[in-house]
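FW: tagging you since you asked about this chain on Friday. Here's the raw sequence from the shared folder, copied in full. Didn't touch anything.
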Amino acid sequence: MNGIDSVVIATGNDWRAIEAGAHAYASLSGQYQPLTNWTKDEAGNLVGTITLPLPVGTVGGSIAIHPGAQFAHELLGHPSAVELAGIISSIGLAQNLAAVKSSCNRWHSKRTYETTSEILRTSSWSNRR
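HL: got it, structure written out here
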């Protein structure tokens, strides 16, 4: 949700509403479910989908008065609300793929642990006793 929240904030939309809607949607069945689904097509290509409510806007509210939000919309090519939801969904899906890849990579996990342990072991903070 971090990537989604970033684009939502940058475009002047309400990130809290998006977060609440996504979490409510993920728990509709009574048990928290993932928002993404990863499969392979017949050719062996990885296919990802993300499903979540994205009530975003492209006019009015803070978008009309906030220069940063106006710049973000200009940078994105002044998308419609539907196009903006697609952009935001793409960011969320890409971020999820990166998280899945990272958590599946044993070398990365082991190396990150070793690096973090080394930093903590040699840091001035851990030597303050």
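FW: The longest helix spans residues 81-104.
HL: agreed, and The helical segments are 2-10, 15-26, 61-65, 67-75, 81-104, 106-122.
FW: great, closing this out.
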